[in-house]
From TrEMBL:
InterPro entries named among the record's database cross-references: Beta-lactam-related, Beta-lactam/transpept-like, Diverse_Enzym_Activities, DUF7586
Record keyword Hydrolase present: yes
Protein name: Serine hydrolase
Residue stretches spanning the membrane: none
One GO molecular-function entry: hydrolase activity
Length: 459
């Protein structure tokens, strides 16, 4: 790990937060890290594992954070053209249990497929995977609980199906695909399906007494994609850096941006948590965090990244309950952001650009609504309302001379510059909306413009 470089007051505040969480939550041990610009800048530990404080190389079970690894593998298949997110599961997985063949890959990733939250008895997290040897065994006959696509309903069997989908399309065991496509490229040498020393043991803490009960460390078999993995702070910091910025060896940043776009219904008007494609999304005091929480008997885990702040956090504890681990991890990110706000990159002019782009920048009008287009770094355009609220988007140049919306209302829409016979831009076409240099200032506005033009009010 690199030398710590946070300010002393920041380090003390972070230590105080995890110390409070470990003591009040009565966790046998807790270990955490904060990363900035893709590198760890602080680690802390409380409690003991085998008589010593845990280190950043101590394995803990990460529970449902496993789902994000599976989602990355699915998105790699999508980016390769092996599947489409709109594909029904049964198109690629003939052995899908009854009632699940028609749900789509996207619905499974976003927990909107309507499948049961858990498997039939017995409790899958505490029993050997041999109890349910076949894929059909992970869902009961009434395993479809809601119409597909209607609402968010978290489903562990749903991600077991996605893991089976990866194995089907790759023709390899999930463990091998995971190692080849994520762990090796990211240098994650201490992440595995089964524990490898040094690792923490999982404990349940009695609710009314300071005594412990060992929890089983089972191999969950076909349910492994829902929560089987073990990892370390070191490894999850590498994974967090990847989730924040992407890695061409694993997934492009644009795909990760899509994964952290809400794909499930919001939880009320002032939402706290929602779900993207295999990523949980948390609104923490206006700061968008993405990542995942995790729990298995004896273990709690959370990883959050805040790309806008270039920050991330990881927290492990070896207790079944008692700590809001997702809140602790969010607090570590918030404390760092508030104590040491990100220093903006120094402004610098573009090294090169197409002078013709200057024809597109400046004010435009959608009817009477004022907009502005700016030329940004890497040749992207930025469309923003001017002034006040309105629709905006970042736009990426395409090979055919058009521009593709990357986010906001115009995500996926095309902007086209329309030119006259002399090559001068007359107006812009944005998904059929006409943008003009003056409010309703072009004869190309659909429906025409009143021939008398703008006028004063009645006397």
């Amino acid at each position: 790990m690199p030398e710590m470089d946070l300010l002393p007051a920041t380090r003390r505040a972070l230590l105080h937060r995890i110390a409070t969480a470990q003591a009040e939550g009565r966790a046998p041990s807790l270990v955490a890290a904060v990363l900035r610009d893709g590198s760890p800048v602080w680690t802390g530990a409380r409690g003991l594992v085998d008589g010593r404080p845990p280190t950043t190389d101590t394995q803990y079970r990460i529970g449902s954070l496993t789902k994000t690894f599976v989602a990355v593998l699915v998105m790699r298949l999508r980016d390769e053209g092996r599947l489409d997110l709109a594909d029904p599961l049964g198109t690629h997985l003939p052995a899908a249990p009854a009632g699940t063949a028609g749900v789509t890959v996207a619905q499974l990733l976003a927990h909107t497929a309507g499948l049961a939250s858990e498997t039939p008895v017995p409790w899958w997290e505490r029993t050997d995977g041999g109890v349910r040897p076949e894929l059909a065994d992970i869902l009961a006959a009434d395993g479809v609980k809601h119409p597909a696509g209607r609402l968010f309903h978290y489903s562990n069997p749903g991600f077991a199906l996605l893991g089976a989908l990866v194995e089907q399309l790759r023709g390899k065991p999930l463990e091998q695909v995971l190692a080849e496509e994520i762990l090796a490229p990211l240098g994650m040498t201490r992440t595995s399906l089964l524990p490898q020393a040094p690792h923490a043991d999982g404990w349940a803490v009695h609710p009314w007494a300071d005594v412990l009960l060992p929890e089983p460390a089972t191999d969950t078999g076909r349910m492994a994609p829902a929560g089987q993995l073990w990892s370390t702070v070191d490894d999850l910091c590498r994974f967090a850096a990847f989730l924040a910025k992407g890695d061409p060896a694993v997934l492009a940043e644009a795909t990760l941006t899509q994964m952290r776009t809400p794909a499930a219904p919001m939880d009320g008007p002032a939402w706290d948590l929602t779900y993207g494609l295999g990523l949980q999304l948390k609104n923490d005091h206006g700061r968008l965090l993405s990542g995942h929480t995790g729990s298995m008997p004896g273990f709690l885990c959370t990883l959050w990244v805040a790309p806008a702040d270039r920050l991330g956090g990881v927290v492990f504890a070896n207790t079944t309950s008692g700590i809001s681990i997702g809140g602790v991890c969010a607090d570590l990110v918030r404390i760092t952001a508030e104590h040491e706000p990100r220093i903006p990159d120094a402004w610098a002019p573009l090294a090169s650009y197409d002078p013709a782009l200057l024809d597109l920048v400046g004010p435009w009008y959608w009817g009477p609504g004022a907009l502005v287009i700016r030329l940004r770094a890497e040749g992207d355009l930025e469309l923003a309302p001017l002034p006040g609220p309105g629709r905006g988007s970042r736009l990426k140049a395409q090979a055919d001379g058009t521009w593709l919306g990357l986010d906001g209302y115009y995500a996926g829409e095309t902007l086209r510059a329309v030119r006259d016979a002399d090559g001068a831009v007359t107006h812009l076409d944005l998904g059929s909306f006409v943008l003009t240099r003056q409010p309703y200032g072009s004869d190309t506005v659909p429906g025409g413009v009143d021939p008398l033009g703008w006028r004063g009010g009645p006397a």
